[in-house]
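During the reporting period the student researcher (J.K.) took over the structure-prediction task from the postdoctoral fellow and processed the backlog of single-chain submissions. One of the processed entries is reproduced below for the supervisory committee.
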Amino acid sequence: MNEYRTSESEGTANLPEGTAPLVVPRHKIRVRVMQAIYAYIVSETPAEEVYAHLLEELYEAAQAEAPQNADFLKELFFGVVREMPQLRSLIEQHLRGWTWDRLFMVDKSILLCGTYEITHFPDIPLRVTLNEWIEISKIYGTPRSPSFVNGLLDAIRRTLSGDASSLVSQKAL
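J.K. obtained the following structure tokens:
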């Protein structure tokens, strides 16, 4: 379990005095799910095997500490896997001057996860989702990834915000 201990500053923002930081914050979950989606796409390994090898231990740590974060991990990973064709289609509708096949694989993984989070988690403000995936793209993507991810996820958000039946139109920015 020590593998998931946070640094001194990670997970400590806005915590009441005397409250321990989360061992498994959602940022870490997002990163690991993005990596697992990458592995799933590249290896064509069944989702359950990818989950067992890359996410199960993190899920168990989160379950012991913050069950809602464990649920977030499982839903984000398996939701992206389950809805990958629809997510890809939504992303492709917003690509300008690019095709899906030309995208950097890490950017694909980030966009799939970010799009799923935008469209399926009503309790997470859109700004949080956008900021998190942009930050992840700064670390794992190319130098151009952050602006690309920002532009694409924001375009998806704007399109879906205009549809009154969409969950996105009901979420806080």
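The committee noted the following: The chain is about 65% helix and 0% strand.
J.K. will present the remaining backlog at the next meeting.
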